[in-house]
User: Which sequence fits this backbone?
């Protein structure tokens, strides 16, 4: 669509050094990790994202068009300027700015996780899968901390879905929720292998693992948007490019509030859609 | 030179 075309124009400006196109390392990597996890792919090492995607591709149910696209994005990411990694996510000031933007500028409530009932179902499904790990994983496979057994984990999930009369579809729109569950299950397996060398796990440990996984990978993405905004402000960035027009309107409408925050060193940030940025670049 | 920040979802419009 038009926003894709506008991004091509922006990329051209970047390649000709007429625009500084930047991103932040950790926040960007976390976005990718979450996005791929939602599709079932487990990135365990952000220095080896492509290898992690290729390991996922060896499973025959994977949509190769999608993974080809991911690899392209990873390649594009490598061509961006990454803002100072050292300063990311360390200081308390960043956290107060984070809450300030979320509450005072974007006026968001405290709860941005999944709808409660869906989260509850996910937890129950993952917990039940974990209760049966010893029926599927032999000792050798359980000891292998590196390899992700996509096919085996899918079989474990499939069996639990069938128990609940949920159609175990993986592909397409219909399979979206199941792919997301597989992504979460891969994490549960990984964390369980590391924290419990011998199966079975006791139910309290399962609760602990599932809760940790849900907290890190099971929420929605709005919190990440705020992280990006914080990084932009800290690095005195002019524009944050997003296709979320609702976010753009809310932030730009109340960004003057930023001057009230003591840790806020720059208030010039404006959120723009790709086409809005192109218009500004042309007008320059 | 202006600085523009891009995140994953916007960057993926290029792929």
Assistant:
């Amino acid at each position: 669509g038009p926003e894709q075309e506008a991004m091509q124009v922006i990329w051209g400006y970047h390649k000709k050094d007429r625009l500084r196109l930047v991103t932040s390392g950790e926040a960007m990597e976390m976005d990718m990790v979450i996005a791929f996890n939602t599709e079932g792919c487990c990135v365990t090492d952000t220095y080896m994202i492509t290898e992690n995607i290729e390991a996922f591709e060896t499973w025959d149910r994977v949509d190769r068009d999608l993974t080809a696209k991911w690899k392209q994005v990873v390649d594009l990411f490598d061509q961006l300027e990454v803002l100072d990694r050292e300063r990311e996510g360390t200081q308390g000031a960043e956290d107060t700015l984070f809450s300030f933007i979320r509450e005072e500028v974007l006026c968001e409530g405290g709860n941005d996780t999944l709808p409660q009932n869906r989260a509850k179902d996910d937890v129950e499904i993952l917990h039940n899968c974990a209760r049966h790990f010893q029926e599927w994983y032999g000792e050798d496979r359980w000891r292998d901390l590196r390899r992700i057994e996509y096919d085996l984990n899918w079989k474990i999930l499939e069996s639990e879905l069938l128990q609940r009369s949920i159609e175990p579809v993986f592909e397409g729109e219909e399979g979206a929720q199941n792919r997301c569950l597989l992504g979460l299950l891969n994490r549960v397996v990984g964390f369980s292998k590391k924290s419990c060398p011998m199966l079975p796990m006791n139910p309290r440990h399962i609760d602990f693992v599932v809760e940790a996984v849900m907290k890190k990978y099971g929420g929605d993405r709005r919190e990440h948007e705020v992280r990006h905004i914080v990084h932009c402000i800290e690095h005195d960035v002019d524009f944050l490019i997003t296709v979320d027009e609702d976010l753009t309107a809310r932030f730009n409408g109340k960004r003057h509030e930023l001057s009230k925050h003591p840790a806020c060193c720059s208030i010039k940030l404006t959120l723009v859609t790709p086409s809005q940025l192109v218009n500004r670049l042309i007008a320059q | 030179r202006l600085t523009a920040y891009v995140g994953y979802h916007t960057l993926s419009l290029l792929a």
In short: Chain A has a mean pLDDT of 91. Chain A touches chain B through 47 residues (CB under 8 Å). The first strand of chain A starts at residue 20 and ends at 24.
